[in-house]
Amino acid sequence: MHANGLEFSNVRKNLCPNAVGFPKIGTPSTICSPRPGRLTKVFAMSFPKTFYRWRPHPWHGLEIGEQAPDVVNAYIEMTPFDSVKYEVDKTTGYLLVDRPQLTSSMPPTLYGFIPKTYCGARVQKLSPTSERGDGDPLDICVITERPINRGEVILHARVIGGVQMVDHGEADDKIIAVLHEDRFWSHVNSVDQVRQVLLDRLRHYFETYKRPAGGEADVQVIEIYSAEHAKKVIKAAQADYDETYGS
């Protein structure tokens, strides 16, 4: 077809056999025509600012959120229905099967991490019984009223507290949050407003999820802390990330 006197062709169909990639976004490019000996001028579509041409890495390519540390973006790796431990592969950004759960327990909430955070020296200082940060993004547990039964989703999470956990000497904190748009939990801003039975389940899960059958795991849940302390941990993890990977 024609537009403004230029002939447009389908980019995917008209790439030369020896061509590499697509024309530069928003600029005219000359590529092979399906008709022998003829060249066709093609305009590639300009993408809106909010559009990612390639899939961003969940840890490094997504933002923590404009309202952090009060409300953060969370990338979910596991749900309460998962009997297999999934985690993001740090190289590719795709979800990796880590292992089947070692026990019969499954996470009591959605479980994932906060983008552009890193558990390094600053996070370790807020966990005095640990020796170092675990070198991973900061974990987060998100409470929802309605079941969400799939991972690899992004959501907005309102921070209400956290779990101070030490795994083999490493600070491995878990932020506790509620789904920000969930009206059922709209009144909750502190772990003190969450029923103790749910906090007990969180504590039990993290104390046992790495325990081999008939053995013990070198994991200690030190305490469940307030929203105020949780926000300090998030800020520390942001600073650790900026120092390690750049802002």
Description:
The protein has about 250 residues and is an alpha+beta fold. The protein has two domains: about 1-45, no CATH class; about 70-245, Inorganic Pyrophosphatase (Alpha-Beta Complex), CATH 3.90.80. It is built from four helices and 14 strands. Strand 6 (about 85-90) and strand 7 form a beta hairpin. The two termini are about 45 Å apart. The model is unreliable at about 1-35 and about 40-45 (pLDDT under 50).
Give the helices and strands, then pairings.
Layout lengths: L1 E2 L2 E2 L3 H4 L13 E5 L6 E5 L27 E8 L5 E5 L6 E6 L9 E4 L7 H5 L6 E2 L5 E5 L9 E15 L2 E2 L2 E6 L16 H13 L10 E7 L1 H19 L2
Structural class: alpha+beta
Distance between the termini: 45 Å
CATH topology of the largest domain: Inorganic Pyrophosphatase
Low-confidence stretches: 1-34, 38-43
Q: Major sheet: order of its strands?
A: 5-8-10-13-11
Helix content: 10-25%
